[in-house]
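[job 0412] stage=fold_complex status=start
inputs:
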Amino acid sequence: MEVLAILIPVSLFLGGVGLVAFFWTLKKGQYDDPEGDSRRILDTSWDDRPKPTRRED
Amino acid sequence: MTSALRPPPSACPGCAVAPAAAGLAEAAAGARLLLSLPTIHCAGCISTIERDLDAAPGVRSARVNLTLKRVSVDAEPDISAADIIARLERLGYEAHELDPGVLSMTETDLQGRDLLMRLGVAGFAMMNIMLLSVAVWAGAADATRDMFHLISALIAIPTVAFSGQPFFRSAVRALAAGRLNMDGPIALALILTVAISLYETLQSGQHAYFEAVVMLTFFLLIGRYLDYRARALARSAAQELAALEVPRAVRLRDGAETTVPVAELAVGDLVLVRPGGRVPVDGVVAAGRSEVDRSLLTGETLPVVTAEGAHVSAGEVNLTGPLTVRVTAAGRDSSLHRMADLVAAAESARTRYTTLADRAARAYAPTIPLLSLGAFVAWMWISGGDLRLSVNIAIATLIITCPCALGLAVPAVVTAASGKLFRKGLLIKDGTALERLAEVDTVVFDKTGTLTMGTPVPDNLDDHPVEALQVALALAEGSGHPLALALARALRGRGLQPAVVDDLREAPGYGVQGVWRGRTVRLGRAGWVGTTHAATTGAYLSLGEETHSFTFTDALRPGAEALVRDLKAQAKDVWLISGDVSAAVEAMARRLGIDHWQANALPAEKAAKVAALQAAGHRVLMVGDGLNDTVALSSAHVSISPASALDAARAASDIVLLGRDIAPVADAVRMGGLSSRRIRENFWQSGLYNAVFVPIALVGLCTPLWAALAMSVSSITVSLNALRLK
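[job 0412] stage=fold_complex status=done
writing structure:
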């Protein structure tokens, strides 16, 4: 059962990383346009390199 | 107003756009512009628009949002919205400027993000606690179990304190107002369950309900978020409508023109109305001669000649020549405003609709605490005063009865249904519209602009020689009159080339004239061209001695025939009520197979007819687009207007039809019936789960495992049932 002392903090930590990542995506506005984002993958114009200036809002 | 922003029907597009452009340039002093793009729909639209705008001089970057159908443009200060609108229109996209201030985007965004954040935290906590709980259910005992419960408590307490806030706040608000809403029992259950579970944990008790509490929060927040999104979408649509309105007028004083807000005009002022512009006030024409389009006010398809001394009303569109209007009534007293007052009156008279969710909540909300209190009292009596046992059973009852599935029952269905309808080109502005649509048994249509496109098309082109048609085309292209535009479009559509006509001149209110092969040719009104007026309205062409007449009909809106057929197949009564003349209305009714029709109806009469139908026990769906329909729209049980409708009409209606095709209205009616049925089914389902699990909880057999199972299974089945909507 000693292994629990490691596993529980590890699982909480990994869950916490996921939560922080979620907050980050939320802050970056990745849920502002779900419809458009799902269509943008069909667009081939910025396949080689990312678009240089991206608005952040 | 909308039409001021679109390319107006005018002889000189430049000067007609100018007032709108002047108004918009002021608003666009900042570097960020926000435009509504109602017609975008795919990846191609996004890349076309972004590539074009990025390449435009002065534009730093442009980003399209397909969900909200908007583009936000970051531009140099000297770029105005009018420039961008012109660019987008060349690409073939309709665009309207939105006032970023009115839209207050950031506020709604923050609220949505806030809910999502709480949802994320609840989800994270639920998964972690569930891992520990599974271990407890699998047989962890004694010290291990207590430790797991303690860790669960450490996660659950801050989670509930943070994620449960929307429920706590709403419950407190309702209680402060002396009411009990659904959030009251929810808040009570959350707090009591956490408190008792913590106590049990500290006493090394067997059962703790931490995972159930967090799960309850998580599922309820999903429902709350879906509900919020539907309302945010509707609100942004309503704000767009308000933001579109740019009420300005050009005042003439001592020969100088100044653009002023309509509110600043006084009786006696002189106002200049350019061709293509909307008349901002009620007044008398002091100078100029033109034709005005009254279709939005009265439903008349054809323009009316206006000369000195004629009365014009606010809301009419000036077509051919500039008019100087002396103001007789402005602002509050104008006919436009009186119409708005009628709408407000009709809206307040419309009885507050009690939604299915409201009714369910009212019946259910008091049951939850009462049931759990009853369980507590009964077990105190049965066990002879065992407080701990009684409290535990009461808590189990409380958490089992808490309406997880009930909170999802309505939002899940409304989200699924409005998503389906949005794809068909219908924007639901009010979530309860679907439920109200389900009750509709009578559909009332307006004619001009609703069942028809509101634009005339020539119907006798084949009767004329090609040479005459070529001259007509040359003349028609020199005018901005709607009949001339329609004629030119139809003739170009046949691949005709214009004849060479020199010295082209437009006589406002009469027609166009020019010189062709040394002869004076005219296209315009019968008297001016030198012929007799035919029975039907039209335009006349004179080629020296011979004359030709072109007759017009109003083009039927695509899908109108299919719509009427479909509605009749669904056993709905169909009415046609129009302000147009009898002959036109009767012809339209016969063509579409509509049995009941009424012509020459004034705005108040339309509303009265709708009210009479409703008084007779019918539930009326009103479909209309004009100012003359707004009162009827707001007094009907539920209302739909096309996107081409006047702002006031769109604001008054529950659903906006985004595309040109009107056939989706039948889908909306069908979807309304279906979603109402799904909502009822969902209520029955969640009721069934309670009927099974509440007795188990009452007899004291409910473990946290049962509670978690009941909650997740009922929520999932309810959501799946909503997704069955086709």
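[job 0412] summary: Chain A touches chain B at residues 1, 4, 8, 11-12, 15-16, 18-19, 22-23, 26-27, 31-36, 39-40, 42-43, 45, 53-55, 57 (CB under 8 Å).
[job 0412] exit 0
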